[in-house]
Amino acid sequence: MNRTNVEFLTQQLEKATKRMNSRYSTFILEFDPNEHQAPKTNMDEIMFYHALPKILEKKLRLEDTANSLVTAFNEIPLWMKLTEDMDEGSYRLFISKRFRKRKVVDEWHGNSDLKPILIQ
C-alpha cells in the first residue's frame, strides 16, 4: 500500500515543532481525552484497540511517530493536539480516534498550514 502520508505527517510535525521553538526529539502519544466519539470505522477500531495501545505513553522519535499514525489505507488522525511535556522532556500528541483520508482532513482543517496538527 502507498503510505505517502507518513512523509506528510513527518513534514507537518517538523513544521509545528519549529513553530513551538522547542528542541525535544521525542513524542508521547495518547488519545485525546476530550474526544467523546467512539471509533467509527473498522480502521478506527483497529488503530484504537490494537495498533496504538502498544505505543501509547512511550517516547517515540519523529519518524516512528509519523509511521505509527498512518493506517494501512493511508489514513491519518483527523486532528492531533501538540503540547510540550516539560516533565518528560518531550512533545505530547493528543490524537483523534478517527482516522481519515487526507482530503477529509484538509476539508476539516480549512486553510491551516499545520493540518492535522493543532498547537496547544
Explained architecture:
The protein has 120 residues and is of the alpha/beta class. It has one domain (5-119). The chain has four helices and seven strands; from the N terminus they run αβαβαββββαβ. The protein has helices spanning 5-20, 42-51, 62-68, 102-109, and strands at 26-31, 59-61, 76-77, 80-85, 90-95, 99-100, 117-119. The strands form two sheets. Strands 2-1-5-4-7 form a five-stranded mixed beta sheet. Strands 3-6 form a two-stranded antiparallel sheet. Strand 4 (80-85) and strand 5 (90-95) form a beta hairpin. Helix 1 crosses helix 3.
What secondary-structure arrangement, pairings included, does this model have?
Blueprint: H1 5-20, E1 26-31, H2 42-51, E2 59-61, H3 62-68, E3 76-77, E4 80-85, E5 90-95, E6 99-100, H4 102-109, E7 117-119
Parallel strand pairs: 1-5, 4-7
Antiparallel strand pairs: 1-2, 3-6, 4-5
Helix pairs in contact: 1-3
Q: Short summary of the structure?
A:
The chain is of the alpha/beta class. 34% of the residues lie in helices and 23% in strands. The protein has one domain (5-119).
Spatial separation of the terminal alpha carbons: 33 Å
Q: Calculate Rg over CA atoms.
A: 13 Å
Q: Tell me the β content.
A: 15-25%
Number of strands: 7
Low-confidence parts, pLDDT < 50 over ≥5 residues?
none
Helix segment tally: 4
How many structural units, i.e. domains? 1
The average pLDDT value, as a whole number, equals: 95
Structural class: alpha/beta
> What is the strand arrangement across the widest sheet?
2-1-5-4-7
Q: What string gives the helices and strands in order?
A: HEHEHEEEEHE
Overall shape: it is globular
Largest sheet: 5 strands, mixed
Helix content: 25-40%
